[in-house]
Each structure stands twice: as C-alpha cells, then as structure tokens.
Amino acid sequence: MRFQGFLRMEPAAANEGILAWLREVESLGAMLTNGAAARLGPHAASVDNLRSSVHAALARLLDFKWASPEVKAAARGYMERNPALRQVGRYRFSTDWMSKCEAEWREVLSPLMGQPGARVLEIGSFEGRSAIWLLENVLTHPTSRITCVDLFEGNAARLFDENIATSGAGERVEKLVGLSHVALRRLPPEPVYDFIYVDGSHETYDVLEDAVLCLRLLKPGGVMTFDDYGMAAAQLADFQDISRPDLGIDAFLSAAARHLQVVRKAFQVTVRKNPA
Ligand SMILES: C[S@@+](CC[C@H](N)C(=O)[O-])C[C@H]1O[C@@H](n2cnc3c(N)ncnc32)[C@H](O)[C@@H]1O
C-alpha cells in the first residue's frame, strides 16, 4: 500500500500526501469492484480486504504524534463514512479471504459435502468467514462438526461468536482458544479429521509446526489446505516485514513427502494424506 511510503517522509510532506491519498481512496472506493481488487494481487482479492487495510492504516495514523489535526480529522471522517464492517447476507465481516478459494474448495471438498460425521479442523478462524462457508457448503449434515482453533481476541472474537450464533450451527462448532501449537497438542492424537485448513500464524516456524501437528490428526485419504503460500510473492516489493508461510509449507512438503500427495500448489497449497 502507498501508505507505507508516507512513513518514510518528512512530517509536512507526509501530512500533505496523506490528505491527497485519502481523497483518492475515497473517490476510487465507490467504483472499486472485487474483480478490480483481485487484479491487485491474490492477497488483496476483495474490496473488503482493501477497505480493512485502509482502516488498519488510519487507526495507526491516529496514534502518530506528527500527524496534523487536519489529517486526523480527515482520517476520522473517512472511517465514519466507510464503516469497517459489512453485512454479508446474514453475517458481519470486515474481510474476505474466502471468495478467492471458493471454486477450488468446492471441487476438492465435493466428496465430503453432506457426509454424515464429517469432521473439519480449522487453524485460524478470525471472524468465522471460512468456518461458516464450510458449515454452509460442506458440513451440512447434522452430525458433521468443525473444531476452530484461534487466539479468539478482541473484536474478531466477538464477531466470530455473533456470526456462528447467526448461522444456527453453534452446537456443531467446537472452539479451542489459544496458541495453535498448544491447542493442537491437547487434542487426542488420533487421525479423525477429513479436512484441515491451516490459516493461523503466518510465521514460517509456526506454519511448519501447525502442519506437522495437523498431519497426525488428518485421516488417511484426508485433505489439508494451507492458505497464503503465494503471499510473500504477491506482497509489494517495498514491504519490509513480510511473513513467509511458503518457507514453512515447503519445509513440510519435503519432510512429509512420503506421507502425502500434493493436489494443488498455487496461492493455496492442498495435499492429500496417503491411505494407511
Ligand atoms: C487470516 S486469519 C484467519 C481467517 C479465516 N480463516 C477466514 O478465512 O475467515 C488468521 C487468524 O489466525 C489467528 N492466529 C494467529 N496466530 C495464531 C496462533 N499462533 N495460534 C492460533 N491462532 C492464531 C488470528 O487470531 C487470526 O484470527
């Protein structure tokens, strides 16, 4: 995002640049479509994600001592006119990391759709968007269940609870609160899950550890998908502090090569565990 560049400027130039940037963002915002957002890279993917990035940047800006009163007023005005949350059907979400993978998930997960007793494990649930997609499209049988592992902190945790309650499927959702490497070790060490979605911490070592712990919990023949394999490659070139889930996923794929088949390697990576 161009916003990062302002942080390296002299305060006067930065304040002026931010005011112009805000005017531009607001005028373009009304015209932006999901298709246009996706052309900015798979991680941007939707208007909701771009909007959420602008909100996060502006929230940071309000804390900067060098930001002028005029800039802070403009930022507050923008945030009031453009709320961070959006009603999506019956739910409220601030972001959309789901639409970009829906088509692939429908294809890979079709054998699991509507199956009695189907079990899914999700690492990283945030506001519940991917969990709800799974509940509405795959875990449609009343005996199917999802286990959601997350830190469940702040506003996202409140939205997760609200959205799951709205879905009416709350009784089929098990929440495990805490760091995934701790929570996953508390689960019975049995291969019971048909599908595992790894979308929690994006730090290389954490992703590798989640992958190793999850493979033990995946049924033979079960499917595991990692988000954001392509994230680092899609980041803007001047973005310094990038997480590298791809390095963790590649390390896992090498170490576990004898135990799985790679189904797809694109922005997401999907593997199938070999039969017993
Ligand atoms: C990208 S979001 C998940 C988005 C969600 N899967 C969706 O598509 O709607 C990542 C989530 O992982 C959680 N998270 C990050 N590090 C974690 C960790 N070490 N253990 C458990 N959860 C973690 C965050 O709290 C956040 O909610």
UniProtKB/TrEMBL annotation:
Record has RNA-binding as a keyword: no
Pfam families recorded: Methyltransf_24
Keywords, in A-Z order: Methyltransferase, Transferase
Biological process according to GO: methylation
The protein, known as: Class I SAM-dependent methyltransferase
Coiled-coil stretches: none
Classification via InterPro entries: SAM-dependent_MTases_sf
MF annotations from Gene Ontology: methyltransferase activity
